[in-house]
Amino acid sequence: MSSSAYSIGIISLGCAKNLVDTEHMCGRLREEGYRFTSDIADADILLVNTCAFIEDARRESIDTILEAAAIKKTGACRFLVVTGCLTQRYAADLPAALPEVDAFLGLDQIDDIADVLNTWRDNMTASKNRYVIRSPSKRLFEPPPQREVLTGGPFAYIKIAEGCNHRCAFCAIPAIRGRARSRSISNIRAEVEQLLSDGIREINLISQDTTAYGRDRDDDANLAGLLRELGRIGGDFWIRLLYGFPSLISDTLLETMAGTEQVCNYLDVPIQHSHPEMLRRMGRAGTIIPVNRLAQRTRKFMPDITLRTTCLVGHPGETDAAFEHLRRFMDSVTFDHVGVFVYSPEDGTRSARATPTVPAAVAHARRDQLMREQQQRVIQQNEKLTGQSDRIMVHSLVSKTKSDCYVGRSRRQAPQVDGVTYIEPTTETLVPGEIVDVRYQSAQGYDLLAELS
What we know:
This protein has three domains: about 5-125, Methylthiotransferase, N-terminal domain (Rossmann fold, 3-Layer(aba) Sandwich), CATH 3.40.50.12160; about 155-385, tm_1862 like domain (pyruvate-formate lyase- activating enzyme); about 390-450, CATH 2.40.50.140. It is about 35% helix and about 20% strand. It contains 13 helices and 18 strands. The protein has a six-stranded parallel beta sheet with strand order 6-9-10-11-12-13. Strands 2-1-3-4-5 form a five-stranded parallel beta sheet, sandwiched between helices. Strands 14-15-16-18-17 form a five-stranded mixed barrel. The mean pLDDT is about 95.
């Protein structure tokens, strides 16, 4: 039977970087003629792309695999493939632990997904653990000609580099995804141009550390140069930077961001902590000064910049005083968006051997406190926007309360992690990706309500 006779159900877990890998595999499979279905129970083939960043992510990955295996027993599924960080990290253990899975692929084997399915299609036999999973990952993929976008909106993620050279004491990512390796500026520009021609209007540049882009190359490529090149494309679209590193934010980068029309005045820079001793324990001592100066420096170049960050609480050695230092710092800087994670000990990391440990209940209480305080700051900031004008990118038409309205995002709202802006019901037909002028009417928690102006 031909590939078109088989439908594939996709389950992609984890971060946007993992989603790009899923999109890459979907592109390869579409080239081979396979079909996709949103009904997992009706799929002939199930593909689970896993995450293994922290314990909660590993647990979710395992639970999802087991759910897929149950569907394989009772539903239409006849072949189950598992890929991603979990398989990369635990390649030696998973085949025996999860015999229900027909094939495991590591991060360097995502290009082989079509070969695996074609072998099964032609022989109707399992090819369990058919490929040797090399650790750490070393390859760097370019998107297939049929670039898939699975975000569900007029925005896409572009992975500009893979891997990471930082050695944060708590993080297992370098051991999983390998050393940093950057794509060429010309290839990235070509991908952006293709996405724009397909109707995408927001480009989110991502990697483990976007600010390290190009440092591994010998052609002088760097993030500022990439932004300038993408700006030369011209047109009304947005570029957003996600996942930066405090010590790598140069004046040149900030100047370029401020001077490139398409680049959103938005910067996502995980600081993890503010207390110097905690940053040393985390293997991030080089960020002590950059963290303290982050808000002042970025707002000097872009007074209206939106700052997002991520904090890690409960790391070994975090005392009440260290947490209080972080709490006061967050209050003084007033980040626009904040994510807080509870420390998870990761096998093979220095932090996993560190003492004294912080009780889980204490760590969770600290996270909850930071998030409550951040929620109040966001509400206050959003209330100040009432009456102001802005430009919103339309995402979709949604049903909210008793009326249909459009939902979109401003340049200060990144997709899938920040709030959204609801546009009051209108007789005007708006198109996803369209950028419209609005006036804010009110704040609704993390979200905003606006009307066309």
